[in-house]
Amino acid sequence: MNSHPSKFNLSRCLKWLSILCFILAIGCFAYEPVKSHLVNHYQVQVNRQTVNQGLRHKSSGYDMSKVKPVTMSQVVSARMHAKHLPVIGQILVPSVGLHLPIGKGVGNETLMLAAGTMKANEKMGQGNYALAGHHMINKSALFTPLWFHAHKGTQVYITNMKKVYVYKINVRKVISPYDVNVINNTKQPILTLITCNDSGSKRLLLQGHLRRTVSINHVSPVIRKDVQARTNNHDVLKGY
Description:
This protein is of the alpha+beta class. The chain has helices spanning 3-40, 48-56, 72-80, 108-113, 144-149, 221-227, and strands at 87-93, 98-103, 115-117, 128-132, 155-159, 163-175, 190-196, 203-215. It contains six helices and eight strands. Helix 4 (108-113) links the parallel strand 2 (98-103) and strand 3. The longest helix is centred in the first third of the chain and has 38 residues, at 3-40.
């Protein structure tokens, strides 16, 4: 007597299970575009006003031990607070396709969207100007292009939107995360760039000497056009 209701209930359960699976599948397909949208639409145009505002902001901290891996929730949080990101300049490496804002400090939200200064009171063109950036699955995102394409001789431009500082990389090596002395200050003006490898167990160190300092109004037209354009964060979470 109860066999038909049971079959009916089982049929309804299977039907709703199929609908649920379909909805979940749609959600999975939409997940990557949503993540990409969140990051790709943070393409800030850095100018003197944004730099002046960033310099007045409190830093996001300088403790690298507190830096977390990039996650969806981290990026969502960073995008929600993007207007508070203390942007103080930008870094441009044309030969590897890297163009990012520079934020003050290495707080998690800063590093989700920008390169971050590794010490307090760093000044472009003076001493050891040290920047950190994330290594991502997407080879175009954040500091990842440096790992795959930067080499000795690569030119790096950093700017505070008043002057452009041109450095030439002359050191490339893999170091331990505990080699913190590489960001110590120096008498000679150098640039230090740090990013991790895929597993996070090692760090890539790039260092270069300052070659010249140019007013932003007298830099080459190509570089001036690039630094006046929007930065190009690319699909930071692609593959996650």
